[in-house]
Amino acid sequence: MPEVTHQAPAIEGWFATGDAANETGNPHLIGSKCPQCGTYVFPPVPSGGQNNCPNPACASDTLESVALSTRGTLWSYTENRYAPPPPYPSPDPFEPFAVAAVELAREGLIVLGKVVDGTLAADLKVGIEMELTTMPLFVDDDGVERIVYGWRRAGDDAVGAPPACGGRSDEKERRR
Coiled-coil annotation: which residues (predicted)? Predict the structure, then answer.
């Protein structure tokens, strides 16, 4: 594996870590919004793409780029227990991970994303508050660490922080 030279998003334009809308440097998703009816879209509609509003009751042909909420409510979740097949990158050895569907109430969207390492399905409960974060996905052949957006329980300070409820870390160690 090459030495990491810098970080870059795995997919450009889906999230940012700081700009005029978010001076704290905290990550936020980038979506599209219809200025006529207020419908939000994620992932964002690329410029030059079809910019028609997805709301069938709206005839607008304009969508604007907007920062989306950084917190939401856990709507559903599951646990991925199998490594993806090639050509998708996967750590070796593979570790199971949780996937969360988080409802952004203001936008009326449900956004899927990986949950930070160290959090499994048993650590989650529908209705808890989640917050956006970023995490490494893989290091490419040029030494660029590709990062993605993801979710963590609100209040967990560090990426991959141990579960607030305790116990899970011990169970994970017993499985090894």
Answer: none
Q: Which amino acid is at 113?
A: G
Domain that holds residue 80: 6-153
Q: What is the pLDDT of residues 105-117, one digit of tens each?
A: 999 999 999 999 9
User: How does strand 71-80 pair with strand 97-104?
Assistant: antiparallel
Of the candidates 168, 159, 115, 128, the residue with the CA atom closest to the CA atom of residue 26? 159
With beta carbons less than 8 A apart as the criterion, state whether 107 and 44 touch: no
pLDDT tens across 133-146, in order?
999 988 888 999 99
The DSSP letter of residue 102 is: E
- Give the whole-angstrom CA distance, residue 152 versus residue 91: 20
Asked if the structure places residue 77 within a domain, the reply is: yes
Residue 147 lies in a domain: yes
d(CA 146, CA 144): 6
The total domain count for the chain is: 1
